[in-house]
Amino acid sequence: MALLTNTASLSGSLGSIRESLLDQSSSNRALLLMAPLIAFELLIFVIPFFILLRISVAGSSTDHVFAEGTWSLEAYREVLTSDLLWSIIGYSFQLGAIVTVLAVVIGLFYAYAIWRSTGLLKSLLLFSVVLPLLTTLVIRTYAFDPLLVPAGLVPGTVGVVVAQLYIVLPYAVLAIYSVMATTDWDVVEAARDLGASRPRSVLEVVVPQVMPGIIVAAVVSFAWSVGAYAAPELLSNDITFAMHVEGLMLSDMRYPEAAALAVVMLGLMGVCIAGIFTVLNRFGGDFELA
Amino acid sequence: MSEITLQGLEKRYGETTAVEEVSIDIDDGELLCLLGPSGSGKSTTLRMLAGLETPTEGEIRIGNTDVTDQPAYERNTSTVFQDWALFPHKTVLENVAFGLKMRGVSTDERHERARAMLERVQMASHEEDDPTNLSGGQKQRVALARSLAVNPDVLLLDEPLSNLDKRLREDMQIELREIHEDLEETFVHVTHDQDEAFTLADRIGIMNEGELIQVGEPDEVYENPKNRFIEGFLGDTNFIDGEVARASEDAVHVETGLGSEIVLPAEREPAVTEGTELTLSLRPETLSIDGSTTSGSEHERPMMADGSAMNAVVGTVENVLYRGSTVRCSVSVGGESVFVERSAGNTETLTAGDEIRIEWNGADVLAFHADGERVTF
Questions:
Q1: At the top level of CATH, which class does the domain B238-375 belong to?
Q2: Residues with Cβ within 8 Å of residue B342, at least 6 apart in sequence
Q3: DSSP code of residue B150
Q4: Do A193 and B90 touch (CB under 8 A)?
Q5: Comma-separated ranges of CATH 2.40.50.100 domains in chain B
Q6: CA distance A218 to A156
C-alpha cells in the first residue's frame, strides 16, 4: 500500500517535472523560431542605429563627412536651435498627422465596405486595394503630377497629402480589414436591436473591436508619412525632414547634423506613437461621446 | 399595449422562400413558442419581428402601430440571440446598460438600473467581468438582462437555450417562465426543441418549410395535430401504413402490416372508403405491454363500453434500449417494427427474443391521409 502511494506521488512529481520541461522547451522553441528575425533586426536596425548614434555625437570635419573618434554635442545644438529645422520637423509632423487621420477614417469606411459586401463585389474591392501596390511607388507618385497640375494642386501641400494618402491607404485598409473580418455581425445587430442607429452601432461595437487594426493602421500611416520622401520631393516645394537629412548628407556632407536630426526625429516619433497607442486604446472599451 | 399581428408575412431570398404567408395574432402578455425544425423559417419570422429582416410581403403590427418598415433601432422589441451576441469589449454592466445608453439615460441611472437587472438574473457579482470569460449559462443570463433592461414591449428569444447543456437548459426554462409571469410582457420564443416549447409556451406555433402549420395550446397541438408532420415532430411515434378494409358508421377497420386489422372507432359516417390508404400513428404512451402472452387472445377484440375498440397484437422483442428513466423495446409484429416504452422501474425485464402482447385503445390512434392531412372519424 505504502509502495503504491509512493509510486503515485513519484509519478505525480515526475509529471510536474516533465510539464515544466515541456514549458521550457516550448518557450525555447519559440525563441528558436524567432532567431532569424532577431538576427535580422540586429543586423539591419540595431547595429546601424548605434552607428548613427555614434556619428551624431561626433565632431564635424572640413575634409571628411565627420571627424572620426571625436565627441561633440555640437550637431544636437545645431538641430535644436535652428528655426529652419524646427519648421521642417513641424511640417513633417503636420503632413503625418493629416495623412494618418485621413487614412484611418477612409480605411475604416473602406474596410467596412469590404466586410459587408459579398461575392464578386468583395473580391473587386479587395483587389483594388492590392492593385496599387503592384506599381512602383515612384511611378504612382509621378502619375499624380499630370493628374493634379490642371487642378492647381501641384505644387502644394494638398497634392502631397493626396499622393501620400494613396501610398499608405492600402496598408491602412488591410490592417483594419484583417481584424474586422474576424468580428461577428451579430453584435452589430444586437446593438441596433437595443436602439443604436446604424452609425452609432458601428461606432459603439465595431470600432472598439477593430481598435488593434486601427492602431496598426495609424502607426504605419503616421511613421511612413512623417518620413515621407517621394511625394513631397516630386509634388511640392516644401521640405520634409527626410529630404533635409538627404540634403545634409549628400549635398552638405554634414553627417553629424544629419544623424542628430534623425535621432531627434526617432525620439519624437517614439513619443507620438506611444501617444497614439494610449489615446486609441482608451476607445477600446465602452466610451462616452463628449 | 403590445399585442402583435402578423398578416400574410413573407420573406423570399431570390428564388427561395424562407417564410410563406404567416399570419398570426399574438395576445398581449402571451408567451408564444415558434417551434420547427431548422430551416423552417421560425428564426426568419422572429428576425422580421425584430426588424433585422425586411419582409418581402405582408404586414407586422405591434400594439396599434404598423412597424413593417420600421428599422430595428426604432422598434421597442428586444432580442436574445442564439449565441447571445454580447459586446466583447464592454463589461457585463456596460452590456446590460447599453440599451439605456442608446436611449440617452444618464450614466448613473443606467448603471443603477442595469445593476438591478443583473440582480434579477443572479449575475450581480459579475458586473465588472469581461463577458468573454463567462460560461454559457452566465452569458445567457447577461443577454437576458441586457434585453430586459430596455423594458421592451416584446421580448424575442431566438433559441437562446440551445447552446446550454440539458440540466442548465431545464433550469433556465423554468426561470424564463417565472420572469415571463412577473413581467407580464409578450414573449416570442423560437425553438426546435418540443420539450422546451411544451414547458414554456402559452401557445405553440409549429412551422415547417416556411409555413405556419398550426397554432394552439400545447395539449391541443399534441392531441389534435393538424397533419402527419406535426404528429411526428411533437414526439416519438410509430407510423403504420395501411389500407381501409371496411368502414361503417361506428368503426373503421384498417388492414396493416401488423398482421391483423386495426379497429378505429368512428362517431359519424367516415370520410374514407374501402381501399383508402391511411397512415396510423401509435404513440408509445398509448401502448400497454404484457410480457405473459396467453395464446388465443390476439384474435379477441372486445368492444369497450364507450364504443372504442381495444386492439391487441403479439410480437417478438428485437432489441432493448435503456434510456435512463425508460426502456425502449423495438418489437417485430408481422412485417412491421413497432417500438414500445415502459418505465425503467418496472421489475419485469424484457430481453430480445421475448414474445410480448401489445394492447391499445383504438380511440388513441390518429389517422392521416397519404398527403399528410389528418383524418377524423
A1: mainly beta
A2: B289, B326, B327, B329, B350
A3: T
A4: no
A5: 238-375
A6: 24
Separation CA A61–CA B120 (nearest Å): 79
Amino acid A12: pLDDT: 54
Using CA atoms, how far residue B203 sits from A284, B214, B220, B223, B347, in Å, is: 44, 10, 9, 14, 38
Nearest CA in chain A to B48: A193
Is B247 in contact with B274 (CB distance < 8 Å)?
yes
C-alpha cell at B116: 438591478
What is the Rg, in whole angstroms, of the alpha carbon atoms belonging to chain B? 25
Contact between A201 and B78 using a beta-carbon 8 Å cutoff: no
d(CA A156, CA A175): 29
Contact A191 B98 (CB under 8 A): yes
Q: For domain B4-231, give the fold.
A: Rossmann fold (3.40.50)
Which residues belong to CATH 3.40.50.300 in chain B? Answer: 4-231
The SS3 call for residue B280 is strand
CA B355 to chain centre: 35
Q: What is the mean pLDDT of residues B251-275?
A: 81
C-alpha cell at B122: 443572479
Lookup: cell for A19: 510539464
Instruction: Let me know: does B49 contact B155? Beta carbons within 8 Å.
Output: no
ipTM score = 0.82
- Which of B51, B71, B85 has the CB atom closest to A190's CB atom? B85
pLDDT tens series, chain A, 290 aa: 444 444 445 555 555 666 666 666 667 788 888 899 999 999 999 999 999 999 999 988 878 888 888 898 989 998 899 999 999 999 999 999 999 999 999 999 999 999 999 999 999 999 999 998 898 888 888 888 888 888 887 788 899 999 999 999 999 999 999 999 999 999 999 999 999 999 999 999 999 999 999 999 999 999 999 999 999 988 888 899 999 999 998 998 889 999 999 999 999 999 999 999 888 888 765 555 43
Helix (H, G, I), strand (E, B) or coil at B132: helix
